[in-house]
Amino acid sequence: MAETVVHEPRPHRPHPKPKDYWIIALILAVITAVEVALSYMDFLGLAGPTLLVIMAAAKFAIVALWFMHLRFDRKLYTRFMLVGIIGALSMFAVVLATFSAF
Amino acid sequence: MTDVVVAEGHGEPISTHPDMNVVRKTAMWVFLGSECILFGSLIATFLLYRTETRGGPGPELFDIPFTSASSFILLMSSLTMVLAHHARERRDPRQLRIWLLATALLGATFLAGQAFEFTEFVEHGLTLSTSPFGSSFFVATGFHGTHVAVGVILLLATFFMSLTGRLREGEGMNVELVGLYWHFVDVVWIVIFTVVYLLQV
């Protein structure tokens, strides 16, 4: 009996080489260093936390896209991850709104 | 454009059938998606109780330079993990074992740092039952630490499977799945480090 599974492929992109991975790790290390420095800069006001969240999101995306190969893999896997992220953000909103934390 | 994968009975074991790799990987991504929601709820709970210290110690106990060093270690373990995966793709068992062991060691170092941090906090009066802040902090970071510990066990198991020749040709997916789990543990820490530590000091 034959079973047919249909997948949406990514446009072909060459996978990174070890040198690329080292460069990505360096970028992640630099972002982390900037994050730590920012956390000590009280004079930034609301811009400080905003920048920290943006940089965390950037690190998250870099690891997911390159180290977890989402950039090169089936779109289906990206969708599962996005569902999880949207679910987590919804959880944030519901929990914090329910207990009037906003 | 569609990519059609046809699975037909060739008399080979179902566990090594090429389609099983797609099934395993899909299952792992579904699992990781659900884990996002689990950690989302834990971090949301922490945010809810972040100011509820009930007169006990709070975020002033956080040692940002120390936790930053731990974060750096975990971040670099993602690099060693992806290099292990790359070695597996190139069918280089020696490099695979080196990078798997390096990843496990970095993970164990992170865990040692977390154990040290928890001990310090307890000595300064912050425990699981001190306050809602303490409870939500220890549950969120402790759950993550448990995931790291499971990851280290998986990495060491994969390392020993490779060492004893039990990581056979058709089982390269094992390394990829362990890698996905490990990178996920890393991205969760990226969020915890920012939301639980950096935004609170």
How are the elements arranged and paired?
The complex is a heterodimer of chains A (102) and B (201).
Chain A: E1 3-7, H1 18-39, H2 47-67, H3 75-98
Helix pairs in contact in A: 1-2
Chain B: E1 3-7, H1 18-49, H2 64-89, H3 93-123, H4 132-163, H5 172-197
Helix pairs in contact in B: 1-4, 1-5, 2-3, 2-5, 3-4, 4-5
Overall description:
The complex is a heterodimer of chains A (102) and B (201). By secondary structure, chain A is mostly helical. Chain A has helices spanning 18-39, 47-67, 75-98, and one strand at 3-7. Chain A starts with a strand and ends with a helix. Chain B has 201 residues and is mainly α. Helices cover 73% and strands 2% of the residues of chain B. Chain B is built from five helices and one strand. The longest helix of chain B has 32 residues, at 18-49. Chain B is elongated. The termini of chain B are far apart. Strand 1 of chain A pairs antiparallel with strand 1 (3-7) of chain B, so a sheet runs across the interface.
Provide keyphrases for this structure.
heterodimer; A: 102 residues; 3 helices; B: 201 residues; mainly alpha
Unreliably modeled segments of chain B: 1-7
Distance between the termini of chain A: 56 Å
| Oligomer class | heterodimer
SSE order of chain B, as H and E?
EHHHHH
Computed Rg of chain A: 19 Å
Short description:
The complex is a heterodimer of chains A (102) and B (201). Chain A is mainly alpha-helical.
